[in-house]
Protein 1
Amino acid sequence: MIGKSQRESEHRSRQPKKNGKMSMADTHTATPASGEKRALEEALAGLQGTASQFGATCINDARARLQYARDIAAVPGELRAAIDAGRISVSDAAAQASALRNRIMELARRRSSPTARAYAMRLKREGRSVSELSEKYARRLYGNSFSALSEQRQASVFKEIIQASGRPDEGVMQLAQQLGRAGRRLLLVSLAVAVYDVVEADDKPREVMRQGALAGAGLIGGWAAGSAAVAVGVCAATAPVCVGAIAFVGGLLATYGAEASFGSLYPRPTR
Amino acid sequence: MTEPLNLERRAAVWEALSELFVGKELQDYDYAGIAKTLRASGYSLDELEKVLRKEVAPVFRSNLSALAVPEMEGWAQDTVVKEIRAYLERERTGISRLLMRLGTSRALPDAATKRWQRIRSLLS
C-alpha cells in the first residue's frame, strides 16, 4: 500500500520544474530509464567541462603573454641603470638583454598551455645570439659590418639592441587581451550553466560538488592529455593541431569520466 | 613564379619578409633595411607580394597569432630558408593540399598587413 506522502513525492518527481523546464541535474531522477536523456546530460556535461577548459586555458595563455610583454619591457630600464651605475659595460649589457629576452620567452612558453606552447615552438626554439644581432643592427643603422664600425658606433649598436629588446608591438600584444576576453566569456557561460544547475537541483551541495568535479576534470584532463601527448611522443612538441586535438579529447573524456565516477560515488538520493 | 628557385636571390627576400611577422615594434631603420633588401633582389612588387603570401606567411604567420608567445628579433637566414624550403617541399595530397591552398589564400595578420603596406609605399 502506498502512503500519501510517498504518492506526493512520486507526483512531485514527475512534475517538470518551474515553467515546465527541467534542469540538467534533474534529468537523472525524473526519467532514470531514459537512455536518451542520460546521453544528452552526459554530452552537456562534456560540453560544459570543455568550455571551462577552453576558457581557463585562454585566460592562462593571455596572462602568460601579457606578463611576457611586461617583463621584456622592463629589461632595458634595468640594464640602462646598471650601465649608468658602472656595474656593467654596454657590450655585456647588450649580451644580457638578448639572453634575458630569450630566457623570458622560454619561461612564458613554459607557463602557457600545451597547445600554445606547441604553437610557439613551431618556428624556433632558440633566440638569436648577440653577435648575429650586432651584425644586423650595424647594417641597419650604419650600413656597415659591425667590426668595421668605430668604438662609439659599436656602443650605439649595443644600446639599440638593449632598447629594441623591450619594444613589443602594441598591436601584436593586444591579441593577448582579446584571447583573455574570449576566455573570460567562455568561462562565464560555463559558470552560468553551472549556477543554473545548482539553483534547479534538489540536492544543492551535491550539485555544487558535481559542477566543481566537471570543471576541474575538464581543465586538468585537457592540460594533462596535451602534455602527455608531447611527453610520450604521440605528437611532436611543435605540432599545435595534434596537441590541441588531444587536449580537447582528453578534456572531454575526463569530464565524461568525472560525471560517471561522481554518479557512482555520490548517487542521487531517491525521493 | 614557376621558374626554378634561385635560392641565393630568394633567401635574402625570405629573411627580409619574415621580419614582418616579428613581435617587436619595427622602427624606421627596420622598414628602410627591409625595403633596401627587397629592392636589391630585383623582383617586382607583385612578385614580392606573391612570395610573401605563398611562401613566407604560411610559415611565419603563427608568430603573430593570439596563441603564440611571439619571437621578437626574428630569425637567422639559415632558419628562414630551412623552414620555408621544408614547407614548400612537403609532399601534399588530398586534405593537406587543400589546407595549403586555404593557408595561402588567407588574409595576412593585421600587423603584417600594416607593415607590408608601409614597405610597399617605400618600394613604389
Protein 2
Amino acid sequence: MLQPTLTLFEKIWRQHLVATADDFDLLWIDRHFVHEGSFHAFDKLDSSGREIAHPELTFGIADHYVPSDLTRLDDDPEVAGMIHLLDVNTRRHQLTYFGLGHEDRGIVHVAAPELGLTLPGLIIVCGDSHTTTHGAFGALAMGIGATEVAHVLATQTLWQRRPKTMRVCLEGHLTKDVTAKDLALHIIHEIGSDGATNHAVEYTGPAVNAMSMDARMTLCNMTIEAGARVGMVAPDDTTIDWLRNAPRAPKDEAWQEAELHWRSLYSDLGAKYDRTVIIDASNVAPRVTWGTNPEQSLPIDTGIIPELDNNHSTLSYMALNPGQPLLDLLIDQVFIGSCTNSRISDLRAAATVLAGRKVKVPTLIVAGSNRVKTQAETEGLADIFRAAGADWGESGCSMCVAMNGDSVASSKRCASTSNRNFPGRQGPGARTHLMSPAMAAAAALYGQLVDIRQVTGGAI
Amino acid sequence: MKPLSQVSSSALLLLNDNIDTDQIIPARFLRKPRSSGYHHYLFYDARYDIDGNERVDSPIPSSVPQRSIVLAGHNIGCGSSREGAVYAFVDFGVQVIISTKIADIFRSNAIRNGLLPIQLEQDAFDTLVAYCNDRQAQLKVDLEHREISWGENHRLTFDIDEVIKQQLLLGIDDIQATLAWGQNIEAFKHRYLADHTWVVPTTGTSSKN
C-alpha cells in the first residue's frame, strides 16, 4: 500500500492522535513545562480535586519572575511569592523542578532544550506563547492558555483543531553580520503579524539548513510574532549532534531507537502545504523595529520612519517622526537577553563587539539559563561585559517582560534583543527597538543605533 | 464556566489593529489572584497615567456604561498567551468579541472562559462599526442561531464550530468532557509508550532545591 505523502507537521500530529470529534483532534502531550504564571492552572486543578495525570512528563521551571538581581527579591514579596508558589505547587504534585539556585534553571525555552527535554517528534506545550522555540528541534511545540494547562495537567492530552500548514522556504544564505533575528524580523515584516495565524509553519531551505541550533531556536521563537502557534524545522545532523550529549536525552538503546525515529521526521517529497512563502535570505540586512508591533521593522542602513495613515498613536508612543532615519537614533539603554537571544552564541556575538571597549548607555546582559551563564563566565565573556561597563545578571526572562522588577522607565528608548515591542511590554511608556545581539551591543557602544557591518568593517 | 446564549448590549469600540495581550493586561498584574477581579487591570496603561490618574484618551472611560459586546480591530489578542487578557475582559462584563481576525491563543482562551469570539468579513464588520459609531445602539447576539441583529430587522449570521457552540451554550467543563474519553487515552498511551520507549525522559541529575 502506498504511504501517504505528509508534511513533518502532519506526521507528528498523526502519531499523537488519540481520538477525533467533529473537527477537533485529541492529542497526546509528551512534555509539559510549567512556570510561575501557571498558578491559575494549579488553582483550577486543586479546586476540582483532580491530580496530575503524568507528573513524570511535567517539568517546573522558574523564569518569568526571576529578577536579574536576586537580592531584589527581598524587597518585593509579591514577586518572591510567585516563585515560592511554584515551589509549593511542584513539590505538592511531585514534579521535577528547577527552582532558584538550581544549576539547570533558566528560561524554559533555553533550559529545556539544553537539558535534552526537548526532542524531535514530541508534542510539547507550555503556558507561554514562545513555546514555538522548541520547534527548532522538529518538535510540534505550542503555547497554550491557563485552562489548557489545567487540561493537560489533568489528562496529558489537549483538544486542538488542526491548523493549516505553511512552508517558509528560505533561499540563499545570510550574509556576514546578518542573523536569524534579522531574518525573523524580515519574515514577519513580509507576511505581517497576523500572516501565519491558524497555520503551523515549517522553515525549509538552504539558509535554515546552514543554521546552528541556537539560530534555529531564534527563528522558531519569533514565529508567534507572525501569528502562528507552531514553527518548526525538520531534524537533521545538526539537531541530532546537538542532542547527543544533552543530560536528559535518551541514552544507549533508547537513543538508537530515538534516532531511527527522528531520521523519519521530514516532509515527504511532494507533500502539500496550504501555503508557501519564499524568502531570499541573501537580501536580508540587519533590521531594527521602529513601531509597536514586530512587523514594523526596517533595514538599519536604509530604514526611514514611514508616514502612517490612521494609527498615529504608534509614532507618538515611540516619539518618532516620519522621514527620520533609524540610523543614528539616540537610545537610553540596552538589554541583551530573553528566550529569543540569550544563548551562548548570542552572548559570544555581543562579546565580540564589546571586547576592549566601553558602553555609553546602561546595558543589562542576562544569560538565558544558568548553564549558559556558567559557560559565559568560564569562557571569559562575563569579564568582557563587566569590563565594558555592562551589568551581568541572573538568568531569567528579565527585562523582556517587565514583571520581575527589571523594566525600562517611561519614555526611555531601549535597544533590545527580546521579541516584542508592544506598548508597555518592557514597562509603562517604554520604547522598545528589537534587533540582534551584535546590533544591540553596537548600539550600547555608541549610545545610538548603528549598522553592525560598519562596526565590524572598521568604518566607524 | 457560565453558559452563554443571548447577549444584548451597545458595543465598546476598540478599533486599533493588533491590540496585543500586553496592552490588554500588562504583565505586572498577572500575579494578582483572580478573586481580586481582573477588570481593574483591563487596558491599565492606556486607562491610567503613570500617577494613576485616568487618561483623557482612555479606551474605556469610567464615564461610559459597561458594555458586554466589543468590536475590536484586526488581530485582537496577538502576542502573549496570558489567559489574564481574557479574564480582564470577562471580569469587565464582556461576553462577546467581534473582529475581522482574532489571534489563535486568545481565541482559544476566550472559548474556555465563556467569552464568545466572532470573526466576520471586513464588510460585515464595517457595517456593525458604522451602526455602533453613530449612536448608543444596541446589538443582539444570538449564539443558538449564530446571528447578530440590530436596528429595524438588520441581521447577519456568523460561523462557529458546532462543538464550540455547544460548549459555550452549555458552559461545559472541558476536563470533565475529556475524562469521558478515558479509555481511548489509556489505550493510546500504552501503545504509544511501548512503541516509543525513548519518549519518557531519563531522570538525569536529581532535582535540587
